[in-house]
TrEMBL record:
Name this polypeptide is given: ComF family protein
InterPro entries on file: ComF/GntX_DNA_util-trans, PRTase-like, PRTase_dom
Signal peptide: none
Origin species: Rhodococcus cerastii
Protein family: Belongs to the ComF/GntX family.
Domain of life: Bacteria
């Protein structure tokens, strides 16, 4: 239905509303920037980098992607995340591809919400980022999942958000991954958590905790926007 609407409605930039394209050049400039280090209130225990504040085209893009089903936004977001990986490598924040293979692990969405949106938009962005980094082989395994009982976090305080996700993110398929040498995270892998928006940091902190419990070293978190 949404795709049909995309076809019949006049095309406009999901970042600023300018007519004629999915994502305009001006909004691309706002995304294609070196990521900045941010410190969420709930410390994820790993460095966290953001492409900018949750405002302007980043905010409009996230809303279009997540709430309005504008899948096309995943492309500029994914490309921007791939660019950001390059910046982080240039800055020496994460290892270069010669030393270490990159694994992008998405912070999970609530399952029902992801289904309603026609697939997990963050996963879509990460997969496009991986494509952009080809011929480098970047893995985007679906390792984390939210269990039942996680509420929509809109309107919750940092403490409430932490409580909301505590113990409710689980690693799935990690045992299976361990059996597969290509996916086993080790010293030769750089694991980056990926999400669209970091608000309090509660979700990223829980993701990092779960992965660390499984012996997966997390190098940092990279997000499109920080609120
Ligand atoms: Zn625009």
């Amino acid at each position: 239905m949404r795709t049909l609407l995309d076809l019949v409605l006049p095309l406009e930039c999901a970042g600023c509303g300018v007519p004629g394209e999915h994502w305009c050049g001006g909004c691309s400039l706002a995304l294609f920037v070196p990521p900045v280090a941010v410190r969420p209130r709930v410390d994820p225990g790993v460095p966290c980098w953001s492409l900018g504040t949750y405002s302007g085209p980043r905010r409009s893009g996230v809303i279009a992607l997540k709430e309005r089903g504008r899948r096309s936004v995943a492309r500029p977001f994914g490309r921007a995340l791939a660019e950001a990986v390059g910046h982080l490598r240039d800055a020496g924040e994460i290892d270069p591809p010669e030393l270490s293979s990159l694994i992008l692990i998405c912070a999970p969405s609530r399952a029902r919400a992801a289904r309603a949106r026609g697939g997990d938009p963050v996963l879509r962005c990460a997969r496009i980022a991986a494509e952009q980094l080809a011929p480098e082989r970047v893995l985007v395994p679906e390792l984390l999942r939210m269990t039942g009982g996680v509420r929509d976090s809109v309107g919750l305080s940092a403490g409430q958000r932490q409580h909301n996700v505590a113990g409710r993110i689980e690693a799935v398929g990690l045992a299976r991954s361990h059996a597969d040498a290509r996916v086993t995270p080790s010293a030769e892998f750089t694991v980056l958590l990926t999400d669209d928006v970091v608000t309090t940091g509660a979700t990223l902190a829980e993701c990092a905790r779960v992965l660390t419990d499984f012996g997966v070293p997390v190098a940092g978190a990279l997000v499109v926007a920080s609120a």
